[in-house]
Design brief:
This protein has 208 residues and is α+β, with helices and mostly antiparallel strands. It has one domain (5-206): Alpha-Beta Barrel (Multidrug-efflux Transporter 1 Regulator Bmrr, Chain A). The chain is 28% helix and 32% strand. It has six helices and seven strands; from the N terminus they run H-H-E-H-E-H-E-H-E-H-E-E-E. It has helices at residues 5-8, 10-13, 41-58, 86-90, 113-126, 157-170; strands at residues 20-35, 78-84, 99-107, 136-151, 173-175, 180-184, 197-206. A six-stranded antiparallel β-barrel has the order 1-3-2-6-7-4. Helix 3 (41-58) packs across helix 5 (113-126). The longest helix has 18 residues, at 41-58. The mean pLDDT is 95. Residues 19-201 form the GyrI-like small molecule binding domain. Pfam families: GyrI-like. This is GyrI-like small molecule binding domain-containing protein.
Length: 208
Amino acid sequence: MKYEWKKEEKQLYLPKTLPELITVPKQKFFMLKGKGNPNRDSFAEEVGVLYSLAYAVRMMPKQGYTPEGYFEYTVYPLEGLWDLTEEGRKSATLDKDEFLYTIMIRQPDFVTQDVAGKAFELVRKKKPHPLLEHVVFDTMEDGVSVQMLHLGSYDNEPQSFSLMRDFIGKNNLEIASLKHREIYLTDARKVEPAKLKTVLRYRVKPIV
């Protein structure tokens, strides 16, 4: 039986279209930091490098190497942590060139530093790219968070963020970090903007 994150981890990946409170456990990721407008070509290259690593892990048994604890699974979706430079925060309008981001793809629990290292090795042989030197394998834990499913264009996300901030205020919480998380359940290259599905998430903490 293939492990399907959409079925097994619905709470994390298929939330409602209204804000809800959730606790996100520690997770493992291939991660790559960047700056600037995500609509530029180099962003697509960065995403491609992450997917190369994710699929290298997924296909390892076909390369003659089966990691301990390996199981069949669907590759996890692309995620992004988004922030703005100091300059971007001061601006009255959103300047996408001032975005700071970390894009990432989650890895199953059986992926260790050694398994990740093997993935780098496989990709360097088959599909070498200078960006591989900037990708890291690490863990991240969001912990207590507020999230919701945003339907439609990325440019309309402020409406959903506004709902989330109202929910956070009404529940005696505050945003713990200026960075927010996005999980892309659809591929913007293949789906029209109105049909995009994105999980939006803020880390939160109680107001003391």
